[in-house]
Structures are given as structure tokens and as C-alpha cells.
Amino acid sequence: MIARLQAWGRSYTNRGRYTPVGIVFHWVMAGLILFQIGWGFWTDWMMPGGDKVHAYQIHSAAGLPILLLAMGRIVWRMLIDDPYNDADTQGLQTKIAHGTAFLFYVTFFTLPLSGWIMWSSIAAPGPLYLGGIIPWPQIPLGEMPLERQFVILDLAEDVHIGSIVLLLLLIPAHAGAALKHHFWDRHDVLRGMLPEIPDWEDDRATRRHKRQAPDLPKESEAG
Ligand code: HEM
Ligand code: HEM
Questions:
Q1: How far does the centroid of ligand 2 lie from the alpha carbon of residue 35, in Å?
Q2: Buried b vs exposed e over 37-52: b needs ≥16 C-beta within 10 Å?
Q3: Which H or E run includes 63?
Q4: How far, in Å, is the centroid of ligand 2 from the Cα of 179?
Q5: Is 188 in the pocket of ligand 2 (CB under 6 A)?
Q6: Which portions of the sequence form the region Disordered (predicted)?
Q7: pLDDT given for residue 199 in this prediction
């Protein structure tokens, strides 16, 4: 089973492409994280009250799936190697790209975990739900002495904000580098992270997509 999965993965990575699973992980998590950053700052800016609590409930519901997705993504990466493409031949740039990916993975854990800890310490604003539906437990911090809970809350808040600052530095650099590789260097790396669009000139695509004859006027109509 695993060997077949890996062979399927290689049918993409050998062509310098991420697998459809890798692509879905990347773009779903990127979308969720961008949403969380925007929504988090918007919520922080709101006046205290019921709406703000509700907004934080949405923030936690959308943020907790990132923890599970990150675990799934790590397992996937352990099973299926990344593709080797043009951008992997760039020496220091390649090392920086790998370092950036590693730091992204760190934030995929530090953000939801620190959020979960903040939510669980001192007067939690309400129950937690994964994706707004599945009940999610609180971390049992309530039994600790109050001073220790404050220390943990402070620390979790620092980790949350620190991770956000890190993301705000990494995301523009990462997206900028991807666009530079695509438009400036004409490398294949961004194409490998986008869904595959069947190409008429590509033999493999024509096997799946029947070529349509153009609608030419009949001889009698052509005059
Ligand atoms: C990748 C996931 C997440 C991202 C990108 C994110 C981002 C943010 C942002 C931008 C803020 C506003 C920071 C500020 O202006 O001070 C914030 C605050 C907050 N987030 Fe998250 N968050 C994530 C996950 C979570 C989760 C899963 C929870 C709860 C279970 C959570 C709970 C909170 C809380 C309680 C605050 C308020 C912190 C404070 O006022 O100091 N976050 N988050
Ligand atoms: C919140 C936003 C984003 C996050 C957290 C993120 C995260 C990541 C991570 C962790 C990887 C490593 C591959 C993997 O483990 O699957 C990666 C690869 C990649 N990302 Fe992003 N990404 C984001 C946004 C973007 C955007 C906006 C673009 C395009 C403009 C982009 C283009 C790419 C490309 C082309 C790769 C492949 C790089 C390579 O193989 O060396 N990403 N991204």
C-alpha cells in the first residue's frame, strides 16, 4: 500500500511537481493562515463585548484545524519526497528556502498550541470547537495556582505574537521568491505547486482529453 502510494507520488515528483495532496495541503493551509492573520488583527481591534468573543470563537475554530493539518502534512512529507526542481540548484537560496519551510512548520504548531493554551487559561471565553463543529477539550490549567496560570498565559501570548511576527516576515519573502523564480528566472517551481492544467501539446493530456475539431464552415457554406 505505502509502496504504491510512494510510486504514485514519484509519478509527480519525478516531473518536478508536488502531488495533488501536497498542493491541497499547501494552498488550504496558506489560505487558512492568511485568513487567521487578517481575522486575528481585526478581532484584536474590535471593541470589547459579545461580538469580539464571537469573533475569537471563529478565530479558534478556524485555527485549530491547522494543528491537525500540520500533523497530516508532516506524515505526508515523510512518505513522499519533495520534487527536485530548478530552484533546488541555487546553493544558498535553496538553503534559505528550506529554512523558511522549516520555520513555517514550526509556526503551524506554535500558533494553534499557544492559542489553545491562552484559551484554556484564566476564564476561558467559552467552549472550543474544531472547525466550529467538533467539540475540542480545554487544556486543564484551571487546577494550577493563579500566578502560574498568569505566567503561562503571558508566555503563550508572547509565543502567539512572536509566531505572527515571524509569519509576517516569512510570507512576503516566500511568496516574493516564488514569483521571482517564476517570472524572472523562468524556473518550474511555482508551476509545480499549482494544479496541473492539461496541455493540448502534451501527449499525456490528449490521452485523457479528446481533441475537439474547430467549428469550420461546411464547404457549401464557405462560398
Ligand atoms: C495559524 C493559526 C493562527 C494564526 C495565524 C493566529 C493569528 C492571530 C492574530 C494575528 C492575532 C492578533 C494579535 C494581536 O493583535 O495582538 C491573534 C490573537 C489571538 N489568537 Fe490567534 N492565531 C491562530 C490560531 C489560534 C488558535 C487555534 C486560537 C485558540 C484556540 C487562537 C487564539 C487567539 C487568542 C486568544 C488571541 C488574543 C491574544 C491577545 O489578545 O493577546 N489563535 N491570533
Ligand atoms: C501563508 C502562506 C504560505 C505558507 C504558510 C506557505 C508554506 C509553504 C511550505 C511549508 C512549503 C514547503 C513545501 C511543503 O512542505 O509542502 C511551501 C512551498 C512552496 N510555496 Fe508556499 N506558502 C505560503 C504561500 C505561498 C504563496 C502565496 C506562493 C506563491 C506566490 C507560494 C509558493 C510556493 C512554492 C512555489 C513552493 C515550492 C517551493 C520549493 O519546492 O522549493 N507559497 N510553502
A1: 16
A2: eebbeebeeeeeeeee
A3: helix 50-79
A4: 11
A5: no
A6: 201-223
A7: 67
Count CB-CB contacts under 10 A for residue 172: 10
25 CA from centroid of ligand 2 (Å)? 10
Q: Is 30 in the pocket of ligand 2 (CB under 6 A)?
A: yes
The confidence band for 212, taking pLDDT boundaries of 50, 70 and 90, is low
Q: Render pLDDT for 4-35 as a digit per residue (tens, 0 to 9).
A: 999 999 999 999 899 999 999 999 999 999 99
Pocket of ligand 1 contains residue 97 by CB under 6 Å? no
d(CA 75, CA 64): 18
- How far is residue 171's CA from residue 48's CA, in Å, rounded to a whole number? 30
* Three-state DSSP string of 93-142: HHHHHHHHHHHHHHHHHHHHHHHHHHHHCCCCCCCEEECCCEEECCCCCC
Most confident of 57-71, 129-143, 196-210: 57-71
CB neighbours of residue 116 within 10 Å: 20
Burial label for 63, CB within 10 Å (0-12, 13-18, 19+), is buried
